[in-house]
Amino acid sequence: MNAVHGRYLQIDLSSGTATARQLTEAVFARLLGGVGLASYLLYRFCPPGADPLEPENPLIFASSPFIGTGITTASKIAVVAKSPQTGMIGDSLSSSYLALALKRTGYDALVVTGQAPSWTVLAVDDGEIRLLPAGELLGLDPAATAHAIRAELGSGFRVAAIGVAGECGVRYASISNDGRLAGRTGSGAVMGSKRLKAIAVRGTQRLPVVADPRGVVRAARELAERSLGPGTAKYRELGTAANLAFFSRLGVLPTRNFQAGTFEAAEAISGERLFLEHRTDKHGCAACTIGCEHHYRTRDASEAVEVRLEYESLFALGSLCGISDPNAVLRAAALCDRYGMDAISTGSTIAWAMECVERGVRLPGSPDEWPRFGDAGSLVRAVQTIGERRGLGDLLAEGSRRAAEIVGQGSVEWAMHVKGLELPGYDPRKLKAMALGFAVSTRGACHNRSSAYEVDFSDQLDPHAEALAWASAAASSEDRAAVLDSLTVCKFLRHCFSDFFAEAAELFALVTGLPMTAVGLRLAGERINTVKKLFNLDQGWTRADDTLPPRLLSGEAGGLTAAELDRLIQAYYCVRGWDEQGRVPPGRLRELELAELLSQDGRMMYGYAG
Amino acid sequence: MSTGTTAVRVELFGSPQLLTGRRQVEVPGRTLREVAGALAHEFPALAGSVIDPATGWLTGGYIFVVDGRFTRDPSYPVGPGSTVLLVSAQAGGVS
Ligand code: SF4
Question: Cβ of B85 and A272 within 8 Å?
């Protein structure tokens, strides 16, 4: 096949050695690349029961056949490990030049195992590795770390780094590169546990050729033209921050830790207001024609900060914490970037603590330091203490699930997570497809791996449709998301296809030379989601993990009930061909052509053995 | 506004709000097609990126929400009591 190298580099930090290993064509034909490839490697390398913060947890970076082909937005790198938040698969994506650098090393993926004896920078230079001391970089934020490394090694290196949060083990620490983040599920904490401050990658090899160069150029040009049309207008014009006021109007804006779906001060922190009063500039990732990254500057008496802001950071550090001061939200978001941690989990864990304070639950530390709903200063201070794991921040760095288990006093009732991953900015009580998507998602509460909100925000289904119809729609959007994440094409491009699976299948064939149909690509999406599920099964997933926080299942004001969610989940298992306990029967694995691919190490349990 | 036609209140979000400088407008119309046509007529800034002048209907980037229902059905009936929102058809993030 074309457009891949057919090999990955396994790097053992404990011994300082690197080994090149082969990847068969079948892996790409069945799982495409990106998140699909990285999930496969995680399945093979991470033993059942591995502690996510111990050396046995591999940290995987994977590219895809589309990277370097000129297809717009295809500059994403998949970052996968067992998540220290969920104990299940943690997969995230980050954009830009790092992905291209990795592909130019002559490898399709890096699998980093073990633990360095002391803080280290891993330099990957066309497949040669060097472990360099990182002591002087400790305490630096990711951007400063990258700057220092490139100054020393050369600007040809692209750098992925952790900030202080990753160094001190904040469970939702992220990995940053080129100003972008592999944000969710705590890959930065995994990297920190390996004493790896940064990975610097330089690739000077020729990119593998595509199967039909002319066809790819033509298709890429057409897609680039469509990427400037109405399907991406919102992202280009206002960015995702535009969601906030509209979501509040619909009653689905998580407010004060999901105690309400409407924020009375939504106008003050709306995307429209931010655009008029705070926006400075717009940027894009490498190889992107859309450019959705809007930057904003604080405008108050304190020292100005400028920050990239998306809806998820805006809601989590704004309405979720009852904050109506846009300057405080921007400052808190900038701190999350500087410490290198996921803004959703940061905001949500602080909102949990705010509700503890509101309800009179005692927290560690001095009451003067406790965060309170609507108190902008206390929000910013809380972000700082988490980033440095000091005082109350040491508890909050564990995430809402663990913090609530430690504090007790009934506070697990308002820890708003699924499988340990805090909910993003969609109140699922009024969004049936999204509720199901959150509950069954393999990485915990996640809108991106599911994308089922699109069903709710459209006229696809009658609100009174049967559970099976909702389940089919949710599974379909989940499969499309898996394909996008594995071709490493940006989700913001999805509305530029009139028939996504058919057109993306044609692109895949032009790039790789492997035959692919719309049905085959949809099946690949299902297969990728199944591999993730198999990993979770191996790590101890049970039926009880597919649920929502109790607050969201009260049925109040016409919202979802536990019985309704259960019906939706059962329908979803049925659509997937799983048994009533959500396990994957061996026959389904054979139908998906996964049995042989995954059985090479003789480790196939999927909840049926043992 | 022509007599005999019902006035519909439309709340604008995102670019439509910035283009018109209004968060809420009132236009005549008994169906969403008529509402879209009236919007384009009264607010020429919406013609092009939000409402296609050739068809008088929404471009692919926008959708109406009528009483909580998302719809791009031009014949969808509306009246003075309807809650109509004009919003971007895209939602969601990437990472
Ligand atoms: S649309 Fe935005 S997130 Fe997607 S590749 Fe372009 S700049 Fe990056």
Answer: no
State which of A67, A71, A73 you would mutate to test the pocket of ligand 1, scoring each by most atoms of that ligand within 8 A of its C-beta: A73
Q: What is the pTM of this model?
A: 0.96
CATH code, B33: 3.10.20.30
A residues 436-465 near B, CB within 8 Å? 447-448, 451, 453-454, 456-459, 463
What would the pLDDT profile of A567-584 be if each residue is shown by its tens digit? 999 999 999 999 999 999
Task: Give the model confidence (pLDDT) of A383-399 as tens digits.
Answer: 999 999 999 999 999 99
Q: Which of the residues in chain A have pLDDT under 50? A: 602, 604-610
* The predicted structure's pLDDT at residue A95: 87
d(CA A6, CA A157): 23
If residue A127 lies in a helix (H) or strand (E), which one and from where to where?
Answer: none
List residues near ligand 1 (CB under 6 A): A 73, 95, 235, 284-285, 288, 290-293, 490, 492; B 94
Domain architecture of chain A: domains with CATH: 7-202 (3.60.9.10), 231-422 (1.10.569.10), 428-599 (1.10.599.10)
C-alpha span between B51 and A188 (Å, rounded) = 44
Closest CA to B63 of A426, A253, A246, A424: A246
Interface contact B93-A232, CB threshold 8 A: no
Is A91 buried (19+), middle (13-18) or exposed (0-12) by CB count in 10 A?
Answer: buried
Chain A interface includes B81 (CB < 8 A):
no
Q: What percent of chain A has pLDDT over 70?
A: 98
The identity of residue A283, as a single letter, is H
A280 close to B (CB below 8 A) = no
